[in-house]
Design goal:
about 475 residues; mainly alpha; 21 helices; about 80% helix; globular; transmembrane helix
């Protein structure tokens, strides 16, 4: 390790510290501004020529948005169609009819696992709140459950949505890591699905059973009445009947199935076969999400008598809430490109080779620190991915899909008051700060640590890609 490496590492550490200060101190800059300022500072201190530095920022932001932004926007559209078509309500009715009190948390975790595939954590929670509140309200009235029925029902949902958000594409975090590290999408998705299961089990139903008797959470009555009224309206006054559960599940899972199809084809056929090329096209995240949106639009709306104008308005409305996420992703891409072009990643490569640091643990740790300190899982993922991208591309024995998954898991750790999701859970369920910490913060920490454990276990096995 040379003095140049030490200078670059100190510059990167100073950049991360500056990023944290700009976001969480009294300045409280928007993450996009903080990322751009940090990118400029790191590039200048690292000695990059001004012209090259500006080109790195532009290229990094553009490339990241091109690889991730379109897929994230399509995911938001798909989530809006599924919610408006009543797919969530269909799953709610099935759960209420088929489950017992003991099996209810497992059914709720399963429902959130499926619904959470195409949706952001915050979007998925908002979509599922009517389901959570309606199920918990009936449970509260009909059973002798000790503690809060809303915690008993809500904890598994929070765990499942968090696990899917941090581990499985097409969510923006895993997708950003995949694009930055040039990891195989199908392999990362397979690893993510398998790792998510024990994380959801431990952080969801099992932890929920433990914590429920200790909390007396109940949402505000006006909020409960609002969701109850909305549910009754959707059942009684809908212009079109809700689609069947099977059709709703197909529409929900189609993008994930197309991506998984490519992963399976790569394992079963030669790399240069026509089948692999065909599945590679339809299984690309952009094409898979586009086909999913088109299928849902036709099957759930237009074919059932829906008009095109309301559909277009709904799709337009769906992308407005994610503009902030896309801007942060662009800023993170700029920061990542500056770190790479300045040579910081190569310095980290030299250090990891000298001290035999595990890239998987290093990726989890960097992502965790950035996410906890800045309040943005996206910042954690893009920062860690950018720092470790040269290591993944160096030809060293690094499993890129597992590194992407490790970074995604790190971004989930201890979601607290500087995260938007923390406040969404707290206010939706009428929790105190302590109650919110005992739920979402601990849940996501459990999911994060179990995910890391699964990554290290997978690393002992032959790689998928």
């Amino acid at each position: 390790m040379t003095s140049v490496d030490l200078h670059l590492l100190a510059t990167a550490a100073g950049g991360v510290l500056l990023l944290v200060v700009l976001i969480v101190s009294r300045t409280r800059l928007h993450p996009l501004l903080a990322l751009l300022i940090t990118s400029l500072g790191v590039g200048l201190v690292a000695g990059m020529p001004v012209g090259r530095l500006l080109k790195s920022i532009e290229t990094g932001a553009g490339n990241t948005l091109g690889a991730v932004g379109l897929v994230v926007a399509l995911g938001a559209m798909l989530g809006k169609i599924l919610a408006d078509a009543g797919v969530t309500e269909s799953i709610s009715d099935l759960i209420l009819r088929r489950t017992t009190v003991r099996s209810l948390p497992w059914a709720m975790a399963g429902a959130a696992f499926v619904i959470g595939i195409p949706m952001f954590f915050e979007v998925g929670l908002v979509v599922l709140l009517p389901l959570i509140f309606s199920v918990a309200r009936k449970l509260e009235a009909s059973s002798g459950l000790r503690g809060s029925a809303y915690v008993y029902v809500g904890v598994p949902v929070i765990a499942a949505l968090a696990a899917m958000h941090g581990m499985v594409p097409p969510h923006p975090g895993p997708l950003t890591a995949i694009a930055t590290l040039n990891a195989n999408v199908g392999a990362t998705m397979l690893y993510g699905f398998v790792a998510a299961v024990p994380a959801i089990v431990l952080g969801g139903p099992l932890y929920g059973i433990l914590v429920t008797p200790r909390l007396s959470v109940r949402p505000d009555q006006a909020l409960l009445d609002q969701f109850a009224a909305r549910r009754a309206s959707s059942e009684g006054g809908a212009a079109h009947p809700r689609p069947g559960l099977g059709l709703g599940l197909v529409a929900t899972l189609l993008p994930a199935l197309l991506m998984l199809l490519h992963a399976v084809a790569e394992l079963a056929f030669p790399k240069d076969s026509a089948v692999v090329h065909a599945t590679g096209f339809i299984g690309h995240p952009l094409i898979a999400m586009l086909l999913g949106v088109l299928f849902a639009s036709v099957a759930l709306v237009l074919a059932r008598g829906g008009a095109s104008e309301p559909l277009r308005n709904a799709l337009s409305a769906s992308v407005k809430p994610i503009a902030n996420v896309l801007l942060i992703i662009a800023g993170g891409g700029a920061f990542q490109r500056v770190l790479t072009d300045a040579g910081v990643g190569n310095a980290i490569l030299h250090v990891s080779q000298q001290f035999s640091l595990s890239p998987l643990i290093l990726g989890w740790f960097i992502s965790m620190l950035l996410s906890v300190s800045t309040g943005s899982a996206t910042v954690g993922i893009v920062g860690a991915s950018g720092l470790l991208a040269p290591l993944a591309a160096s030809g060293a024995a690094v499993n890129a899909p597992l590194l992407a998954l490790s970074i995604g898991c790190g971004s989930l750790f201890f979601n607290y008051a500087n995260h938007a999701g923390f406040w969404l859970v707290k206010e939706s369920f009428g929790m105190s700060m302590g109650e919110a910490t005992a739920t979402i913060s601990i849940i996501q920490s459990i999911v994060s640590l179990v995910g890391l454990a699964m990554v290290l276990l997978f690393n002992l096995m032959p790689p998928l890609a």
